[in-house]
Each structure stands twice: as structure tokens, then as C-alpha cells.
Amino acid sequence: MQTSTPSLTAAFTTRRAAHGRALYGEPMHGTTPRELGPAGAQALLGGLFEPGADRLAHSVGVGRRAEQVAGALGQPDLLVSAAYLHDVGYAAAACDTGLHQLDGARYLRRLGAPDDLTSLVAHHTAAVVEAAARGFDTTLRDEFPAPSDSELLDLLTYCDMTTSAQGGTVTVDERFGRIYDRYPPGHLVSRSMRHAEPYLRRIVSAVEDRLG
Questions:
Q1: What is the pLDDT of residues 110-162, one digit of tens each?
Q2: First-last CA distance in the chain
Q3: What is d(CA 36, CA 111) in angstroms, rounded to the nearest whole number?
Q4: What is the CA radius of gyration of the chain?
Q5: Count of Cβ atoms closer than 10 Å to residue 114 Cβ
Q6: Given phi > 0 = left and psi -120 to 50 = alpha, else beta, which region is 20?
């Protein structure tokens, strides 16, 4: 059952108005690793996507899901920051190769983000499968080695795979169904997700067992 989150983008719009362009406007050239904690991650995200955009709603939903998971399992803020920023590679300011995980990690690296954050963004949700299909698997691995903490990567992937495009909570079956509805069978994204599906389902199942 999907949980509605109608106030997600409205909250960001309110925060933009309250705090101004210095925090939420494009580009945040002065961003430092310290500012990419959860609050800084939300600030950066709010300046990259238009209010009301599905990418913003999804990213906020994944971030909030990660806050819940981190609280339940005693995980660090790094998980939450990575969750809010996992899809920044779709933003116009970041998009380059078309592989959003790689583009997002490169963008964050340019802002001075630490390696543990960029590696989570680079490898979330079986990124290497789509990277191979696009011819960027070696580039991805060379530029951003896999996270040293595979547990955090699995938890980030779980949050992504149980959050809809509009930011609501969904089952993994619903998530895959909507991805396949959005991308036709021959599409690179659809083919990559079908290839990664057994692996992703195992991750979701394992995390659900931990959460109880």
C-alpha cells in the first residue's frame, strides 16, 4: 500500500522562501563535506530540482525512509545524506553520461563530498549492472571503488527500492511493476533492472527481516 506524502515538495518550497538562495539556490559552489550532513544534503537537493518534480519527491521520500531505517538499526547520518542525494545525477547541473549514479557521484565530488558518500551514490541499487550496459562499468569502479561498508549500500538500496517515484512507501513488487510500466521491455533501464532484480529482491528481503 502506497503512503501519500503530499507535503514533501511543499516543505522544500517553504524552506527555500524562509532561508533564501544562499542555502537552496543553484549552484552551491561553497558546499563543504561538513555541510553535506543530512541538513546540508536536503539543502543541496532542494536547489537542484523544481518544486513538485517527481525526482525531488522521490529523493525526499528515500531520505525520510533512510531516517527511519537509521534510527531503527543504529546507522550513521551518512546513510541519510546518501539517501537524500542518491539521484542528484538526474539534475541538469550534474547530468553528463546518462548514468545517473556516476554523474551524481562526480557532481558531489566536485563539491568536495567525502569518498564514503560519493561511493554510496555511485553504487546504489546495483549501479554496476546499468553501468555495464552503458559501457561505464570500468569507469565507475576505477573512479569510485565500491563502498567499504556494504551494509550501508544495502540499506540505501532498500530505501530506494521501497519508495515510489512520488515519494510514497511501496512494496518491492510495486516498485518493480512501476519501473517496468515506465520503461518498455527493450529499454536499457528496463533490461538492467530485470538483470539485477533477483539481487535487489534479496537485499530488500534481508533488510525487511532485520527491521521485523
A1: 999 999 999 999 999 999 999 999 999 999 999 999 999 999 999 999 999 99
A2: 18
A3: 9
A4: 16
A5: 14
A6: left
- Find residue 169's DSSP bridge partners: 163
List the Cα angle 54/209/203 in 5-degree steps: 55
Q: Cα(187)–Cα(6) distance, rounded to whole angstroms? A: 30
Closest by CA position to 84, among listed 44, 140, 31, 118: 44
Ordered by start, the domain boundaries in the chain are 8-211
For residues 59 and 39, what is the distance between their CA atoms, to the nearest angstrom? 14
Residues of the chain with pLDDT under 50: 1-33
Three-state secondary structure call for residue 169? strand
Separation between Cα atoms, residue 55 and residue 63, nearest integer Å: 12
- Which set of grid coordinates corresponds to residue 12? 522544500
Rounded distance, CA 186 to CA 157, Å? Answer: 24
What's residue 3's pLDDT? 39
Amino acid at 179: I
In the Cβ-directed half-sphere of 131, how many Cα atoms lie within 13 Å?
Answer: 20
Query: 140 in helix, strand or coil?
Result: helix
The amino acid at residue 112 is G
Q: Which three cell numbers stand for residue 75?
A: 546507522
The 3-state secondary structure of 9-66 reads: HHHHHHHHHHHCHHHHCCCCCCCCHHHHCHHHHHHHHHHHCCCCCHHHHHHHHHHHHH
Q: Which residues make beta-bridge pairs with 163?
A: 169
Do 66 and 83 touch, CB atoms closer than 8 A?
A: yes
